[in-house]
Amino acid sequence: MTRIVYINGDLVPEHEAKVSIFDRGFLFADAVYEVSAVLNGKLLENAGHIARLVRSCRELKLTLPVTPAQLEAIQQELIAVNQLKEGAVYLQLSRGNTGDREFEFPAAGVTPTLVLFTQARPVIDHPKALTGIKVVTLEDIRWRRRDIKVVGLLAPCLAKEYAHAQGADDAFLVEHGLITEGSACNAWIVTAQGTLVTRPLSNDILHGITRQSLLELAKRHDIPFEERAFSVEEAYDAREAFISSATTFIWPVVQIDGRAVGDGTPGPITRALRGIYVQMALRATA
Ligand code: PDD
Fold it and tell me: pTM to 2 decimals?
């Protein structure tokens, strides 16, 4: 079945969707994006993703050409026409095609480019959720506004490449000895006392929608947590570690820089929290 994608008001087969070489998303990475998980053919935590998109647009003076309600209707239509049961919907908004390469923002009247597509993949029964992943640490060379979800993702691509070359799955990015986040996920540890630790919100990290939900679920289930920066050494010594994102929910981290985390298998608090999140997600999409 040919995938149907959305481009600027039209639903078309993927090979028919074309964007200009002068599009500012292509020339300058002048574009923002969001990824919402799909379970049981329904969007998960989408209000949070759309709210973050609206914020990203505001920070960059980008105009969303549709209302949040219209955007969600497009996402749902794509899920329906592609018969997507489990996976994700990707959406990207660029500042559009100005017909040439000029750094400054175009005067009013240039239409932004809005594209969306679906991706079918396992979320609940992903093998990494059971086995956990290996990560390596790496200097965080990204720009200073990581709170805005921009498509300029070369640094995370380099981080993933580096991790794969080391036989690992992902990288924990490090600044001044402290872990910021993963290449495309938030980073967490569990201390010897059983406290969840994740970095507080600032311009240093993406304000993960899954991260926020996990903090709320932890509170509801009396799991202690702290929002504070943690060092690479603290991560080495942690009892457990894990990552969170829309597409992984929670994946345990069982090795950091070749050292086993805890006993080298997914930890009990990590597994319990994933279970709590999965229950919430299944209920929300039933
Ligand atoms: N990435 N940090 C970074 C740098 C991310 O790119 C992501 C998400 C997250 C987690 O945010 P959320 O819980 O809202 O998905 C944290 C998406 C999944 C991606 O780029 O594919």
Answer: 0.98
